[in-house]
Amino acid sequence: MSSYRVDEIHLTGADEHAATALAHHFDNLEQQREAGSLGMWVFLITEIMFFGGLFTGYVIYRTQNQASFAYASSTLNWKLGAFNTVVLILSSLTMALAVYFAQVGSRRNQIVFLAVTAVLGLTFLVVKSVEYAEKIRDHHVPIQGFWHWDQAQHALPANVTERSVQMFYWIYFAMTGLHALHMIIGIAVMLFLMYYAYRGRYTPEYHSPVENSGLYWHFVDIVWIFLFPLLYLLGAHLTHGGGH
Fold it and tell me: How far apart (Å, rounded) are the C-alpha atoms in residues 191 and 118?
């Protein structure tokens, strides 16, 4: 008899939580989850179109300046780029685990893996800031007053022009800078999810915010998977440059 009453109390609590999580314009949580997932996919499609324009510009300029882009790529630190790639792959795993534990209702593990994901994202940004600091120090930021190519330190081959190298760096900062901005937003989302997970908001009945945030995080990781070889490995076969 007491077992029946415990179950009844548990179900009542779940129903109360579902009623709190359900927005007034949805009939049930499943409908709300599907609408949220659809909205996230539409958002990600717009993001793909946005980054797609940058990738298209990269392909056009690279096709026209293959030697210059390969040389400029060789001046990047591919080891730091590879390290960051591993960091983001690990963060995708921890994000997937956070989603799983939200689905099964393990609040503690959910918070732990959200925190680890945020730490890995922060690690990525710290490494990226080290790279940016190196470029600022070497005056390789393609902005007036911040750009200077030291021929004594980086002598350009005959088939490479400084203007084309500067264009590569412009694309590099544009693409990696936008990616870093998305990472900052992702980390902020992780902190938001951790706060509400701590308050017990996410349960097996309601966890769509964690799932949708996971989709966003995986998208940002995938973008970097494309950026790393296109920017860092293009000139990895060259023996000159600052990335070796």
Answer: 7
Which pair of structure tokens corresponds to residue 56? Answer: 């298209």
The lowest-confidence range among 23-27, 41-45, 137-141 is 23-27
Q: Please name every residue paired with 140 in a beta bridge, in sequence order, or none if there are none.
A: 147
Confidence of residue 89 (pLDDT cuts 50, 70, 90): very high
Q: What is the pTM of this model?
A: 0.84
Q: Please tell me the predicted confidence (pLDDT) of residue 29.
A: 54
Q: Is 74 helix (H, G, I), strand (E, B) or coil?
A: helix
Q: What angle separates helix 162-198 from helix 66-74, to the nearest 10 degrees?
A: 50
Domain limits of the chain? 31-232
Q: What is the pLDDT of residues 218-235, one digit of tens each?
A: 999 999 999 999 999 987
Q: Which CATH superfamily includes the segment(s) 31-232?
A: Cytochrome c oxidase, subunit III, four-helix bundle (1.20.120.80)
N-term to C-term CA, the chain: 72
pLDDT at site 206: 83
Strand partners, 147: 140
b or e along 172-196 (b: 16 or more beta carbons within 10 Å of the residue's beta carbon)?
Answer: bbebbebbbebbeebbebbeebbee
**Contact residues for 211 (Cβ-Cβ < 8 A; gap 6+):** 33, 37, 99, 102, 103
| C-alpha to C-alpha distance for 73 and 61, rounded to whole angstroms | 13
- Residues 89 and 236: their CA atoms lie apart, in Å, by 21
SS3 20: helix
> Mean pLDDT, the chain, as a whole number?
85
